[in-house]
Structure formats: structure tokens, C-alpha cells
Amino acid sequence: MDIKQLKYFVTIVHSNNNLSIAAKKMHLSQPALSKMIKTFEAEENVELFIRKQGRISSLTSVGEAFYEQALDVIATYDEMMRQLEEKNSLIQGKIVIGIPPLILSLVFAHFISTFILKHPEIKIEIVEAGAHELKKMLLVNEIDLAILLQPTEIANIEEYVIVEDELDAFMSIQHPLAQQKMISWEQLAKAPLALFDDTFMINHLVMSYFQKLNLKPNVKIQSGAWDFLLKTTLETDFITILPAPIKDFVQQKDYQALGIQHPLSWKVTVCRQKKANYLHSEDFVLEEILQYFEHGVDE
Predict the structure, then answer these.
(1) Is 235 left (phi over 0), alpha (psi -120 to 50) or beta?
(2) Are residues 176 and 246 in the same domain?
(3) What are 88-100's pLDDT values in tens digits?
(4) What is the rounded CA–CA span in Å between residue 216 and residue 190?
(5) What 3-state class would DSSP assign to 261?
(6) What are the CA-CA distances from residue 53 to residues 56, 59, 147 (Å)?
């Protein structure tokens, strides 16, 4: 008896053992339904129903046990199919992800390319903007997911840390301080600085910490382009403060990256609004991001 026939059997029981009613529910003829039951009983040499004057009246003890087991099998099958259909439905749709340009280059380039090749049915749209703009877009549902730095300072969101590192001081290899093992905030405050502009969370992290230490930094240049900030230090006394992973993207012979005493954390988070229900594709993409950064960054 296959799953369809099991459902026929259960429908008969739920129809008070009335074949005519059950046949209508299953869009079958009554003779066909009756034949299916008799054939199964004959093949398995069992009696599922008690019959009176040729009519089904109730279940036998074997039939009752079979009925309970059939309910479990049908429930398991239906749940299995529901999950399969749900997984299939995930591989569809469009997700809009807001990412600051720096994080897109340093952290997300490989994930985005591999995800698109692996799941072509899901369209990923990238919105590049600074943290403040992305926060606004997330709150008004213009983007589904936002990649931000902590502290996010947004109410009613879910957030998950996916990358955690530190901010380093980058300078020319010829800078007078380049041979130090570390640099202090006091030394940074005295040097000419090239920093991210105030649309970037890194700017707020750095400037707030200077303020906390009662230091007035000598900020000469502000920009939204990390590569430009880095190039301002080449063969000059400028220093810029950037995420430590940028070391992997620069020529070591040209630049020196120093750890900062009492460093600031650089924590990248994936955020979304708290909702009662999410699109399957949104859940799927979020789970893929979390799994990638937990297990697959170095693969």
C-alpha cells in the first residue's frame, strides 16, 4: 500500500466507514475504492474491516493498529514533503542587501560571487552606502538585510556578528613611527590623519574614542574611499585608521600596519528588522551568510 492508498484507507475511517462518502472525498468511484481495500487485504492476508452483510461496519483489531500507524506515516510524509517544498521555494526570489563599500570589498566579495553561482534562482541586489543611510533604508524596508558595524544603535532588529577584528594604524613604511611594534592614541592624535568621513561608523568609533581620552586629533583629510586614504600615507607623514584585514590587500613593502594600544573592535554584523514572518528566501540567504562566516571563510 503506497501513501496514496494509505490516505484512502484513513479517509474511509474518517468517513465513519462509509465507502460512498469516502469515495466522493477522494474523487474516486466507490467500486474502485472497495476493490483497492479488498486487494490489499488479500495480498497481505489480513482483514482491516469488519463487514456485515457485505458492508464495512468497523475496524478489526488489526485494522485499528494499522490505522494508528497509518496516521503516523502520513504525518511524517506530509511534513517531509512540506519541508521539501519549502526548500525548493527558498531557491527563488530577490533579496536586497545593503553593504558599506569597505565591507563589500574586504568581507563580502567572495561570499556574493559563490552564492550567486550556487543559487542562480535567487537574485541578490547590492546597495552600497554608508552605515547611516543603510540604517534608514532598513527601517523603511527598502533593503532586506543590512551589513553594519557595531554598535548598530537600531531598535527592533535582529543582528548577528559575522566578523570580528580590530582597527589598525596604517602608514608609509618610511614613516618615523613605522618601526614601532604598536602605536598609542596620543601619538595618533599628534599625527596628520586621513580618516573615513562621518557617513562611516569607523569615523564615529575613532572620534568618540579620541573624545573619551580628551584628545583632539589632527584630522586633515576625510573620504569614503579606503584605498584613497591609504594612498595619502604613501611617502608622507599621514596615518590612516582602517580595519586590520586591509593588510591582506596592500603591498607590505609600501605600507606598515601597527596595532593600536587599547584597540577598537571592528565587528561586522548582519541585521534585519524583527517581523512576525519572513520570506523563505530571506531566511535562506541569512542562514547561508551565517554558515559561510562560521565555517567557510577560509575554504
Answers:
(1) left
(2) yes
(3) 555 567 899 999 8
(4) 8
(5) coil
(6) 9, 15, 72
CATH number (domain holding residue 276) = 3.40.190.10
State CA 86 to chain mean position distance.
16
Judge if 15 and 70 occupy the same domain: yes
- 3-state DSSP assignment of residue 183: strand
C-alpha cell at 79: 511534513
- Looking at the structure, tell me whether residues 172 and 253 fall in a common domain: yes
Where in the sequence is the domain holding 190, given as residue range(s)? 164-265
Give the SS3 label for residue 57.
strand
How many domains does one find in the chain?
3
180 and 58, same domain (yes or no):
no
3-state class (DSSP) for residue 132: helix
CB 145 within 8 A of CB 283: no
> How do beta strands 157-172 and 182-183 pair?
unpaired
Q: Is the pTM of this model over 0.85?
A: no
pLDDT in tens, 173-186: 999 999 999 999 99
Contact between 197 and 222 under an 8 Å Cβ cutoff? The reply is yes
